[in-house]
Amino acid sequence: MAMQRTPLLMARLIERGAALSPDTEVVTATAAGTRRQTNRDTLQRAHRLAHALRDAGIGVGDRVGVFMWNGSRHLEAYWAIACMGAVLHNLNVRLPGHDLDYIINHAQSKLIIADADLLPLLEPLAGRLPSVEKIVVAVEEGYEDWSTSLPGPVDYEDFIAPWSEGFTWPPLDENAPLALCYTSGTTGRPKGVEYEHRSQYLHTMAMCMTDAMGLSATDTVFRVVPMFHVMGWGLPWAALMLGCKQVMPHRFTSPERLVRLMADEAVTLATGVPTIWQNVRTVCMARPGAHDLSSLARIVSGGSAVPPSLARWYWEALGVEMIQEWGMTETSPLATFSRRRWGPGPASATAPDEYLAEVAKAGQALPGLEVEIVDEEFAPLPHDGQQTGEILVRGPWVCADYYRDPQPGKFHGDWLITGDVGRIDNRDCLVLADRSKDLVRSGGEWISSVDLENHILALAGVAQACVVAQSHPTWDERPVALVVLDRGAELAVDQVLEHCSNRFAKWQLPDDVLFVESIPLTSTGKMDKKAVRADLAESGYTLPGLRQASP
């Protein structure tokens, strides 16, 4: 007996939540507090936005740029643009102007929806965006007097005001494009990845599984991960599908405000890169018990490795489980999750060593994906937890090429070459060693900057650690560690090196430790090692041994 061939379209998934939980809230942080609407409101407003976009000439396949913080209007844009058959083109608000210029023109976006406070970042591009016919401006309190020289400006609320709900989503092919995200361009020009309805449908179903995020309709989801960054890790779709309460910080992402939002809204699941959770920890440690985070059950963190010391603190201080995920723009983005099903522990309970060991791994591939490690000749390496190789991945939500930009060197057959290096153990858990460009090659041997960073972070008084390679005439490269201390903490270089020597061989130890006030971050919140290396070069920094040897 044959099964029905029902197209896998996002519109079939995401209206489910509004039907099941119509009165559940979508909460957006504002300057004065919060702005609230229900799932039913969000559905109706998404339909009105779709009517307005169609009236403005947006049709199936047209790219619509979205230049916004996390908020309810951004969520409405996700819903309306994707389901009406247009292509949601997320624009990263932290990219420099020349990258924005390139991305908008390369995608040929026809209309842009932007938050009013972000208009100054787009203004320099006025007159340089020939494909853009209209800009729709979403206004929050304090920005009512906005103005712009960008083409066809209109207030968001005025744009949707004439229309009622009841937009009929068009029939689409499941392989039709849904969204377009560009890489951050840290190694050349940004590259576009076009997501299809089918790929995002499957990705949404997989990420909600118990051994992934374990998301359910009872969760209150706090998205610190920007929605402009690889589809907000897919959480907007998943939360809409399930009807979860959603909490979004808009532009108010100071650690103090994030903690207050989590406490006030009884958040159960939060997502963000490790630097976010390091800063939140600092706030909580400064005023123990000041904020009630008893509802928080789990944190999903990715973008860079989760330090075991950070996972230990959340378990023992708050009873919160940390889950590490790994992925990239090209994998839609989630590919692996590390979760061993211990569940959250009672606050102050000692974190199990097995749990901390698992959190340090990138985890097992989501069902439907395959992950492999290979040598320089692309020969598969044993899954023994010892051999290190280039990480390849393939599956139904992994890109096969880049949008209008062939990159044959990024693929090997039907495998994506990720640029990451790691090991796979006998349980098929992926353990990241580093980005290939961030490994330190010393005397023909590789040193993992991630392993050194995580170990330094376990030292009391360390808030952040960043390890980069510096050129060396004898050893090719040697590691240098940059360390940010907690407020009021004091450490000496020798103390850091002695701590490292407890685990690492002498030749693996950093040749220098520099105490700094901050470490630069990329547009996606990761440590910007490219910028760190450039800053060291610009300052004329050389390794201690080389300085001593200089005439």
Structural class assignment: alpha/beta
- Total DSSP helices: 16
What is the molecular shape? globular
pLDDT average, as an integer? 92
Radius of gyration based on Cα positions: 24 Å
Low-pLDDT windows of residues: none
How are the strands of the biggest sheet laid out side by side?
Answer: 2-1-11-10-12-13-14-15-16
Total strands: 26
Instruction: Specify the helix fraction band.
Output: 25-40%
Q: Give the termini separation.
A: 84 Å
Walkthrough of the structure:
This protein has 16 helices and 26 strands. The protein is of the alpha/beta class and 551 residues long. A nine-stranded mixed sheet has the order 2-1-11-10-12-13-14-15-16. Strands 7-6-5-3-4-8-9 form a seven-stranded mixed sheet, with helices on both faces. Strands 17, 18, 19, 20 and 21 form a five-stranded antiparallel sheet that branches. It is globular, with a radius of gyration of 24 Å. 48% of the residues are buried.
Keywords:
26 strands, 16 helices, 28% helix, 551 residues, alpha/beta, 24% strand, seven-stranded mixed sheet, globular, nine-stranded mixed sheet
